[in-house]
Amino acid sequence: MTSKLQLTVPKAIADQYGIRPGDELEWIPAGESIRVELVRRRANGGHQLTAEERVALFDEGTKRLDKLQAERLRKNRRKPAPADRGWTREDLYNDDRGLPRGFPR
């Protein structure tokens, strides 16, 4: 911190996040800390995203979700199914649970 209350961003951080001279940063209070965001990364500085940008963001999110779901499937395949759940499929469909009295079957 300088006497003019200016901060220097370490080169490694600037490189990692693509911060360049002239970029505008927004300082956002976050409880006991401060979050710094590049203005150009937030919907073009507050402007509406184009259809192409929205589709690209949607595709990125879909890929991330697909990856998470694939990992969860791999983990669950290793687990054996319980031998006895305490009910059968027939129990679910052949009793009167949930039906009003006198409901014709």
Structural class: alpha+beta
Number of DSSP E strands: 2
Proportion of strand residues: 5-15%
* Low-confidence residue ranges: none
Helix percentage range: 40-55%
How far apart are the termini? 78 Å
Radius of gyration: 27 Å
Question: What letter string, H or E per element, gives the SSE order?
Answer: HEEHHH
Task: Provide mean pLDDT, rounded.
Answer: 81
Number of helices: 4
The main β sheet shows up as: 2 strands, antiparallel
Based on CA inertia axes, which overall geometry fits? elongated
Spatial strand order of the main sheet: 1-2
Molecular structure report:
The protein has 105 residues and is α+β, with helices and mostly antiparallel strands. Among the domains are: 8-46, no CATH class; 48-78. 43% of the residues lie in helices and 11% in strands. It is built from 4 helices and 2 strands; from the N terminus they run H-E-E-H-H-H. The chain has helices spanning 11-17, 43-46, 51-78, 89-94; strands at 25-30, 33-38. A two-stranded antiparallel ribbon has the order 1-2. Strand 1 and strand 2 (33-38) form a beta hairpin. The longest helix has 28 residues, at 51-78. It is elongated. The model has no long low-confidence stretch (mean pLDDT 81).
Question: What's the short version?
Answer:
The protein is an alpha+beta fold and 105 residues long.
SSE layout and pairings?
Layout: H1 11-17, E1 25-30, E2 33-38, H2 43-46, H3 51-78, H4 89-94
Antiparallel strand pairs: 1-2
